[in-house]
Amino acid sequence: QVQLVESGGGLVQAGGSLRLSCVASGRTFSSYAMGWFRQAPGKEREFVAHINQNGNIRYYGDYVKGRFTISRDNAKNTVALQMNSLKPEDTAVYYCAAKSVMAINYNYWGQGTQVTVSL
User: Fold this and answer.
1) From CA 89, how far away is CA 13, in angstroms rounded?
2) Are 88 and 14 in contact (CB under 8 A)?
3) Which residues make beta-bridge pairs with 66?
4) Alpha-carbon span 51 to 34, nearest angstrom
5) CB of 81 closer than 8 Å to CB of 69
6) CB 82 within 8 A of CB 71
7) Cα–Cα distance for residue pair 12/4, rounded to 1 Å
8) Any idea what DSSP says for residue 78?
9) Measured between alpha carbons, how far is 106 from 118 in angstroms, rounded to an integer?
10) Which residues does 42 contact at the CB level (< 8 Å), separation at least 6?
């Protein structure tokens, strides 16, 4: 089992940047694929980014491609989301998630961190 704690959210002006971090507990972090999701008020949770266990496969939601970058450091049990050129529509609670090897879907979730982008 893994526990996830996000940090780095906040208020930023449009065009600015934020870097989210997620720290995972446990000794087997490198065995989990990791992802970021977000949920805006009144909307369903949506996929943002995914990175595989060793970090050589990444993919992104269409609306963040070219602006967001996911990365991981298995030695530090962390996954990060660098967000550049932020837009007001990026405003949401951002969640870190982990998917164990045999799981079909992400099966561990953090509590989320709020990102607010102002005009």
Assistant:
1) 12
2) yes
3) none
4) 5
5) yes
6) yes
7) 24
8) E
9) 30
10) none
Q: Are 95 and 47 in contact (CB under 8 A)?
A: no
CB atoms under 10 Å from CB of 75, counted, come to 8
pLDDT (tens digit per residue) in 19-57: 999 999 987 999 999 999 999 999 999 999 999 999 999
Cα atoms in the 13 Å half-sphere on the side-chain side of 81: 33
Tokens of 55: 């970090």
Three-class secondary structure assignment of 7-58:
ECCEEEECCCCEEEEEEECCCCHHHCEEEEEEECCCCCCEEEEEECCCCCCE
- Answer for the pair 20, 30: CB distance below 8 angstroms, yes or no: no
Nearest to 110 by CA among 28, 30, 38, 11: 38
Residue 1: pLDDT band with limits 50, 70, 90:
confident
The residue length of the chain stands at 119
Q: Which two tokens stand for residue 43?
A: 């909307």
